[in-house]
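Supplementary Data S3. Sequence and structure tokens for construct A.
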Amino acid sequence: MDTIISSWLLWLIIAAILIIIELLTSMIATFCLAAGCLIAMVCALLGWGVEAQLTGTIIGTGITFILVQTRRGEGNISVQSFISL
């Protein structure tokens, strides 16, 4: 059975959509989810299975949320503040 779209491309499309939503709404949670999707894209490019991709998404999103919480005390929560990390 041929796949219509490769999994890494699907993760990249989802991440791009989430980044666009984040830019339009300034919800930092969508940025965290997009970061998790990019980790899953790397897992897919390495040829790992769906389970590893989903695990990468969960771990990447969790780490990004932790980074958001540590930066929250500084008062500047935006995508631009994470670029300087």
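Construct B, processed identically:
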Amino acid sequence: MSRSEGPLLATFVVMGVAVTAAATTLVLGGPEVPAPAPPPPAPATVTPSLADVATMPELWYVEAGDASAQIAALGFTAEVTRANPEGIADPKEWVVAGQAPEPGASLTSAKPILLQVVPKETASRRPAP
């Protein structure tokens, strides 16, 4: 090998190594580059539903089943508790004697709706207003 061929051979070897490295990177993948962080979530848009803007009706002396149906029609579930049960099991024999929240209050999903019921005969003995 002549003196002029030596540097030329070295250049070809260096170029061959560089091409091999580039091809290896393409085939096997390059160094791990962390993925960019995802963008922050967009703020949620809350559209009030019918249940979010409902008003508590006055349910005093309404039959327990009818009162529960009125609450269900507003998109809520009432928790009914019996006061003075006296063995009466038929819901048609019970009327609302107390309620929370009070009539006219705004109803939200965070507020429980409580109805306290008594037998009709007990409610009919109420004092006149």
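The first strand starts at residue 78 and ends at 82. The beta strands are 78-82, 94-100, 113-119.
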